[in-house]
Amino acid sequence: MIDVEPLIGASFDRMLPERAVAADWQDVLERAGIRRRPRASTGRYRYVVAALALVAFIGAVGAAYALGYPIVGFSSAPHASRTIVDDFGQLTVIAVPTPVLPHEARLITTVRIDGRKHPLFVAPVRGGGFCYLWGNSFGGSCLPGRHGLGFGGVQGIGATRYQGREYMKVITGLVPTPRATHVVLHYADGQTADIPFVWVTRPIRNGFFLYGVPTAHQRPGHQPIRISLTDSAGAVIASQRVFGSFPVFKPKPPPYRLVRHRLAGYPRLNVPAPAIWAKRQQLFSSRAFNGTRVGLWIAPSHGSGTCYWSNVHAGCGNVLPATSGIPRLQPSGTVGGADGVTGGASPSYWLKVTRGRGSGDPVGRGYVVLCCTLDPRSRSVKLRFQGGEQVTLTPKRGYLIWPIPRRHYRPGHRLEEVDLYDRRGNQIGSVSFLASVRELYPCTKPKNYGYGVKMCP
Amino acid sequence: MGVVGSRAASVEGLEALYRGELPRFVRAASAIVGSEIGGRDVVQEGFARAVRSIASFRGEVALEAWVWRIVINTALEQRRKAGDEVALDEVFLTSENGSAEEDLGVRRWVAALPERQRLMVFLRYFAGLDYRSIAEALDVEVGTVSATLAAAHAALRRSMEEVER
Question: ipTM exceeding 0.85?
């Protein structure tokens, strides 16, 4: 009988992974009709100060309108509330942190759309750049370092569904040059609209806008199609296409199904349907620290090539040698997910450090493996860990699976690099892994990073 | 949770819960309403409702279960408003670990479950709630949760075994 619970859990983790979500408690309070934070007097005092500063800021903006658009002096803008500081602070402790300076966050302006207020908060990033957040569910982003002319990613937020397509309800974006005096939105029916934006002075030096698309322009033939920046003489500085509608997503059919098979002592195995089960060959068998049996099998395919499957991944295709030279690959380091690298542009290998159980359960019994495919010319691989320890393994026909011992879960002891060697002992490849990634390796006690964030380091 | 008491203290407790568990709430709500944007909005609204009605919280169940109940009701309400336009499976946009084929199957099977079973599956696997917490969140007996999830597991098991044959 199939034990469906781990299968569902693991599958859900892949389909809809638990992501870091920017908190917006102020939005909750405003929706609840609470204007002031129900805190001690210091909190209320801070809120009142912020409100007064905002009034002062509005006066300053009025004067600055003479330049064509409002300019906000960053250093004189009101400090953001503690909740917003926490929101930015969480960015400094997520899996791949951004060196934002959360205590420097400021309230820049507030935009009202459909009767709801959306405050804009901006915080500088150490070394240049900034993070921003539009309150009330519209989110934000970080642009560390320098960035070129463009809009820094105009994006549509929300959608109106019409005849199977979705149309933007809100557009947000950045204005990266003070030369721009107008942001112009062009619609498919030839109409245009001036989008108000606000310019923020050093160290931010960027403009920001958030614009509610009128209902009349959330329909085919009338939707936004282009956005442009113009200078005071009306010359276009930059122009960018707006993808005003996009088809509603439907999942693509998979190239082949996976079917479940049982082998004594192993967890349920997901095997590519084209694999000829009767001709399977087991290449690896070992145990993770928690006793789970870990294996990898191959079998010829009903079509052509070879299929493989293991505790963590399966696939089909011909594993071909890499092109000449030593591919020096960079880690992907995805947030909260499998870490590692597939092997370059062509051919594509799947060699990752990944959890044996659902990625949403980093605490406790979960184990981590290095798996699955690599250049078949590899006769040995050398694993290099932080702290200098090395382990040599022998792949078989371009496949490998190895449960990483628990002593290598702790920071300072993790896998950093896998070097591939051919039968003559020449290095033919190298794969790097991001050892500092958080939430990949299980731990017994998640660490409190502050700002309301707890996770395995 | 230690938040039964004054309104201010309870709101603090809600904030702590919000900050600590936001990703789980958003994940489960997204699964129910069919989009991450919608799920996020549902959670914001659900917590706002919790703040508004915190005075009615008597501590008879855990604060977290009480909030889950509110967020789930908000999500179901949102889904009803959206009508048939929201397909449950549209929330699963991508598969990040290279098992899209397998996940597509699970997605279809879960989507085919009866509403109540599907809701409990979401709470169990997206929210990571144990049986007692699910029972408190839905205001049912633990035995009901156990029986409903057992039925859901059996249905999923049958679907999987059919694929194997």
Answer: no
